[in-house]
Amino acid sequence: MEVIINGIHANLRFSSAHMIPQHKFCGGIHGHSYHVDVKVEGIRSGEFGFVVDFKKIKGMVRQICSKLDHKILIPLKNDKIEFKNLKDSVEFSIGSKNYQLPLEDCCLLPLKSTSAEELAEYFAKDLYKSLKEVEDGINKVQICVNEGIGQGACYIKEAE
Ligand SMILES: [Zn+2]
Fold it and tell me: Exactly one of 41, 118, 121, 147 is catalytic; which is it?
């Protein structure tokens, strides 16, 4: 059975800034009010016959959201970004553009990009891992990361 959580109604949201290096329209720093939709498929079990308690899923997703919320998202594996410092401040260049940002304002992510696609994969894998640690019978986690209302990317993490 599948349980579904709507990110807008269940308040699974975060607001962050990012850029898509060297993209014509998205190359400059800009922001989104993201929301995260969740589907978890698994076997019903326990005293109440739940797949997973909604509260448990929401807590885990909110933890990821709060890591990203009100930060500038920086993809550490992007080959168009040349990093110069990541210790005291975050310094890097993209082509002829040079950036220096306070470390506390940034969320450094082990990703190639901070696109909705990459963020969905990041959320799905993280949630899957956390759920697996506390629940049996989880088969599949699907996450949709929406960049505002009406556009988003979904990733499905399945049992291997
Ligand atoms: Zn964007």
Answer: 147
